Amino acid sequence: MSNNKKGKALRKILTTAYTAVLIGASGMVIADTLFISKSLAKFSNETAAATNTSTGTSASGTGTSGNSSSSINSTSTGTSTTPTVSTATAYEDDTKSITIETYERNNTQIHVATVKIKGNASIKTALANETYGRNVTAKTSTTSKSVNAVLAINGDYYGARDAGYVVRNGKLLRSESQSADQEDLVIYKDGSFGIIKEGDITAQQLVDNGAMQVLSFGPALIENGQIAVDSSDEVGKAMASNPRTTIGIVDDSTYVFVVSDGRTSESKGLSLKQLAEFMKELNVTTAYNLDGGGSSTMYFNGQIINKPTTNGRNIEEREVSDIVYL
Question: How far apart are CA 120 and CA 88, in angstroms?
Answer without folding.
Answer: 23
